[in-house]
Amino acid sequence: MPSHHHFSTRYLSAPDVIDMVQRKGVEACLRGVADYLHADFLRWGAFDKSARVASHSRDGVIELMPIADDRTYAFKYVNGHPKNTRWGLSTVMAFGVLADVATGAPLLLSELTLTTALRTAAMSAVAARAMARPGSRTMALIGNGAQSEFQALAFHHLLGIDTLRLFDTDPAATAKLQANLQGTGLRTVVCTSTAEAARGADIVTTVTADKTNATILTPDMLAPGMHINAVGGDCPGKTELHADVLRQAQVFVEYAPQTRIEGDIQQLPADFAVTELWEVLAGQHTGRASDAAVTVFDSVGFALEDFSALRFLRDTATELGIGQPIELIPELSDPKNLFGLLRTRNPLLRAAA
Amino acid sequence: MPSHHHFSTRYLSAPDVIDMVQRKGVEACLRGVADYLHADFLRWGAFDKSARVASHSRDGVIELMPIADDRTYAFKYVNGHPKNTRWGLSTVMAFGVLADVATGAPLLLSELTLTTALRTAAMSAVAARAMARPGSRTMALIGNGAQSEFQALAFHHLLGIDTLRLFDTDPAATAKLQANLQGTGLRTVVCTSTAEAARGADIVTTVTADKTNATILTPDMLAPGMHINAVGGDCPGKTELHADVLRQAQVFVEYAPQTRIEGDIQQLPADFAVTELWEVLAGQHTGRASDAAVTVFDSVGFALEDFSALRFLRDTATELGIGQPIELIPELSDPKNLFGLLRTRNPLLRAAA
């Protein structure tokens, strides 16, 4: 916490976070973010929570996701524009801020495009640890786009998944995923349909990007004991699961008020029974009811996950000495004299001197 | 708008914006922001508007203020912590972003601490031009803190105010304001109470900072034809005007749904009649009803004002060549291959090479 006027914001650029992940390793980062997530979900009641604020347009959505406990405030800016890859841009781009609740000072500004993929995968793995059958080894991975490697590695390192059954409507995406997973120890099986990929899978992860009400997964593909990690259905009009898949399963969510708007359960009545993940992690609710039950984690991405990820970035940046101070907020010799900034010698010249 | 993957965000630090204002001059900046504000308020119907998202804590508030038209999205992060000056920090600190609605790409990240003071003052002047009696020359300025110089200069340059009647509970604040206004051509009269300052004033500006339901201005201080520019009452539990001042006046607001929560009119029933400023600027509603009427601009600060200010900063930064590109969003050779970032040579080393 800043105690005087020599206060600056630490900035972590995208290259900084790439540097961080390369130096620590993807596995350590996934484990680290998962630990921070788990710890923060156990403090669920300590957070001032709200559904994100979305601005929808023809081709996509821009969202702000704020959350705070009594010491730290965080928010993320994130977009979702499925057509972006046509212009060479990412579908999802993000950045975020950690701030001090006591003063409002922004302490950290960081890229979150890469980090969002890490935290989403870590969240999926934390949920699956509480819901998937112990001994799960095979995962179907439907949608082999930008987030798929992170999901694959999170389930490999945190759950012991050793075999992936892959399907994407674009074979080039699957080939890219296979190439990126070389040397990780994961065995990959390329399938020609979602149904084929789901066959024999202990876990089915859906991470597709189309902004439509799709039915990627239908009831005929379910098998007793399956865990479904549904990641891609995450905004109004964007779903992946047939409604009957949800009706036949135990459904777990991050934060029910938001998931009822954005998740696959948007297809179902507002009183459809769901369990919030934190209740399971805190031991207040059982997870999987039986070996034969089908469980669904209807993941949409909640602000608390970015809070946890930003905490991980801050602590790791401090540990490794990564990032730069920036003067996003002016440094005032007298905080009651904002106008005085304009009467001083140009601070850019001062800084250069 | 980015058309390919060589996309970066322009960053304007606090020193950059100080540099901009020093090079253009405060008057030109106030006039410029006022022009952008006026133009955007005339396009009121084109904006996707919402009340800001506030996170209240014991000592203050942190807010996110998003808004968009069909081409540009903007948001501001801003805090309000009245006790901050004790730690040498500003009461209000802010930054903001302009983004491309079509792709979600953040195009500009800028300081908004200094800029918020400029845009708030410009907004007050734009409103007063539509509400104050023509020929107004004397303004009472109640609260001589961080924003007071900006209010003084905006009314001097945009309305022709030549005399200020000053009052603050802290005489040091008034002395600072006087010192900062030396050489501007404004005549200042130091008063020992709000009532004394208001006496003979054509316009009364209240810009106090206490987070309480204060009654800075009471009905006995009103005179026929007065315009009241109420700036400091801007969040729940923070008001400046006695309720009867509002009842005796024509009240104008920025965006009624937000002002009813945050403005001085929070003291009054939800059906208390107010007029939105854009209606007056667009000629859809008369402003001042008569020379004898008392008018109040119950200003709380609306997201559209930051949208306008960010547009002004972007255009002026381009004109003057101010600011730096930053890699807040990773540059991807293949946007479908986010994981590929981690398999390349460290981009920091690449950048240094």
UniProtKB/TrEMBL annotation, chains A, B:
InterPro entries attached to this UniProt entry: NAD(P)-bd_dom_sf (IPR036291), ODC_Mu_crystall (IPR003462), ODC_N (IPR023401)
Pfam families associated with the record: OCD_Mu_crystall (PF02423)
NCBIfam families per UniProt: PRK07589.1 (NF005762)
PANTHER family in UniProt: KETIMINE REDUCTASE MU-CRYSTALLIN
Protein name: Ornithine cyclodeaminase
Originating organism: Acidovorax benzenivorans
Source taxonomy: Bacteria, Pseudomonadati, Pseudomonadota, Betaproteobacteria, Burkholderiales
